């Protein structure tokens, strides 16, 4: 069995839906999650500003 090389410490804060912020230990600024484009239409959500959805961050991480 291998050794643990890192433990991610992340705190998620739900703002006014659908806005969420992820505070990751070691980074000053939070990641902001929301909805945009087709997600807005599909979920029938109106938000003040278009932001990447959670799935966008996951896909970017997998593709990178």
Q: Could you characterize what this model shows?
A:
With about 60 residues, the chain is an alpha+beta fold. It has one domain. About 25% of the residues lie in helices and about 20% in strands. It contains 2 helices and 3 strands. The protein has a 3-stranded antiparallel beta sheet, with no helix packed on it. Strand 1 and strand 2 form a beta hairpin. The model has no long low-confidence stretch (mean pLDDT about 90).
Average pLDDT taken over every residue: 92
Largest sheet entry: 3 strands, antiparallel
What is the H-and-E element order? EEEHH
Tell me the distance between the termini: 26 Å
Map the helices and strands.
Blueprint: E1 10-14, E2 20-24, E3 31-33, H1 37-43, H2 54-63
Antiparallel strand pairs: 1-2, 2-3
Short description:
The chain has one domain (10-63). The protein has helices at residues 37-43, 54-63; strands at residues 10-14, 20-24, 31-33.
For the structure shown, list the relevant keywords.
single chain, 27% helix, 64 residues
